[in-house]
Design goal:
By secondary structure, this protein is mainly β. It has no helices and 9 strands. The strands form 2 sheets. The chain has a 6-stranded mixed sheet, with no helix packed on it. The two termini are 21 Å apart.
Length: 101
């Protein structure tokens, strides 16, 4: 079951101990904080833009992207991106499926 974190505001804590699949609606540019899972884990975060769109996530420094390049996020109203992470206990290695329709 997906943990619904509701609307983000400018900051949001994702508590990975609450579940490995979570969702949030971006209502502002949002600085995320992660509460680490109990150990190494595969994690999924579904980002949904609100009806205005144009919001971007800001990730913790422990998030790493392929080739060190963060994706360009979908910013259209009600746009959906699905972000997967492998957490090794310290870092979150991320990949994104963008503009899900």
């Amino acid at each position: 079951e997906e943990v619904d974190n509701g609307e983000s505001g400018a900051t949001e804590t994702i508590d990975w101990t609450a579940g490995n699949k979570q969702g949030v609606t971006l209502t502002d540019d949002c600085t995320f904080t992660f509460t680490a899972p109990a150990g190494p884990a595969n994690l999924v975060l579904r980002l949904v833009q609100d009806g205005t769109g144009s919001h971007n996530p800001v990730w913790p420094a422990t998030v790493k992207w392929p080739a060190g390049t963060e994706p360009t996020w979908t910013t259209t109203a009600w746009g959906v991106d699905v972000v997967t992470f492998y957490c090794d206990g310290t870092n979150y290695y991320g990949n994104a499926s963008l503009g899900m329709a």
